[in-house]
Amino acid sequence: MSESDDALRSMAANRGCKLVKSRRRKPGGDFGHYGLKAAKTGKELLGFGPNGLTATAEEIEAFLRGGAEASWKSSLRAAGAAAPPPPPRRRESKPSRASLKRAWQPPPKPQRSEKTRAKAKPSEPEAPKPPKVREARPADSDDISALLVQLGYQASPADVRRRLAALRKVGQPALVADRNGLIGCLTWHVTPVIHRPRPVGRITMLVVAEDERGGGVGALLVAAAEERLRALGCGLLEVTSNMKRMRAHAFYERLGFERTSYRFAKTLQE
């Protein structure tokens, strides 16, 4: 017999039984199957059928290990065999931390319905709506004056109101970006020239509130001015920007403007 057979034989002997193994190799026979008998009386306890032995090694082991202990003891009593004393109880050792860690499994998370998950998911903040671009009004003078301060120019609301009226009179009204209040302003001008076939359009001033810069407000104002200048027949759009405004230079280049010339300025005395 193999080592496993020897182990089964020893286990059976400890329980007052005798292990029987078939060695017949006929087709359809019981080769490799086992049976158990009472050691003293020879009474068949497990694995005996009309055509030979029927039990597997696993069934024999389970029967002997106590999976069928009650049947095992009653079979022995019926066969007249004395039940062997129970095997000595082994002293249980404390499980190691590693084994406890391997054995522990986190409790399953409670399943939530789609409706519950939808409620639990934090809502994403809505993107701000694009501002409305419109012509400036006299009532916008205070807000435009405050925006000009951010650009570095001083112009009182009264001054702004007079200049807005003058621009509107010549058909070149200032444009503002409005989203629950003014957040940007642009002024533009049409310059007739003799050296070009069509007039030159010019952006004369553009300012966006500091906390709104980089959000596309300036691009909206430039696009609105470009549309008006094209409609008035302009063939070129120009803009001047102070040499120190590096961010403004990058902004205009992103919109397709190119550096083409130097700007020279001189203050005229009254």
Number of helices: 9
Principal-axis shape equals rod-shaped
Strand order of the largest sheet: 6-7-8-9-10
Order of helices and strands: HEEEEEHHHHEHHEEEHEH
Protein structure class: alpha+beta
What characterizes the major β-sheet?
A: 5 strands, mixed
What is the total tally of β strands? 10
Rounded to an integer in angstroms, the radius of gyration calculated over CA atoms is: 49 Å
Distance N to C terminus: 124 Å
Name the helicity range.
25-40%
Tell me briefly what this model is.
This protein has 270 residues and is of the alpha+beta class. 35% of the residues lie in helices and 18% in strands.
What would you say this structure looks like, in words?
This protein is an alpha+beta fold and 270 residues long. It is 35% helix and 18% strand. It has 9 helices and 10 strands. The protein has helices at 3-14, 57-65, 69-79, 97-103, 114-120, 141-151, 157-169, 217-231, 246-254, and strands at residues 17-21, 34-38, 44-46, 48-49, 52-53, 132-135, 175-178, 182-191, 200-208, 236-239. The strands form 3 sheets. It has a 5-stranded mixed beta sheet with strand order 6-7-8-9-10. Strands 1-2-3 form a 3-stranded antiparallel beta sheet. Strands 4-5 form a two-stranded antiparallel sheet. Strand 2 (34-38) and strand 3 form a beta hairpin. Helix 1 (3-14) packs parallel to helix 2 (57-65). The longest helix has 15 residues, at 217-231. It is rod-shaped. The model is unreliable at 67-72 and 78-83 (pLDDT under 50).
